[in-house]
Specification:
single chain; alpha/beta; 3 helices; globular
Length: 129
């Protein structure tokens, strides 16, 4: 099983997708979606929400991350980007910073397409636009 996380800030939305194996890149299936309307509490509560969201998924199964690099709250975007960069760096997985995304399904689809193409998105390149 392959799992990916996407975050969109303010409110924070986290989503996981599933593919049968790390080599099966043919199908995108939404497994779980959860919204955490944290507002200003994002900086103090965001990590607890991510921990809750990922409880059923081993971190070792992450294949890639997609993060929205634009949004209403610059502080929220920065927190999401830093979180994604740290996870990407520590797990050794690609992180895709995607701007101008309206919903989480689009964000996941763009990230998934980049992963399918073999794009190794560098976590260091994920910065807000």
């Amino acid at each position: 099983m392959t799992v990916a996380i996407a975050q969109i800030s303010d409110p924070v939305t986290s989503s996981a997708i599933n593919s049968d194996s790390k080599t099966d890149k043919t199908e995108l299936t939404l497994l779980k979606q959860q919204v955490f309307p944290l507002g200003r509490a994002l900086s103090s509560q965001g990590h607890f929400c991510l921990q809750e969201f990922m409880a059923a998924y081993p971190w070792a199964h992450l294949s890639w991350l997609a993060i929205a690099t634009s949004g209403d709250s610059l502080t929220g975007v920065r927190i999401g980007v830093v979180t994604a960069r740290v996870i990407g760096q520590q797990c050794g997985i690609p992180v895709y910073g995607i701007s101008e995304v309206g919903d989480v399904e689009t964000l996941l689809a763009i990230g998934y397409a980049r992963w399918q193409q073999g794009d190794r998105g560098d976590w260091a390149d994920v910065v807000p636009h």
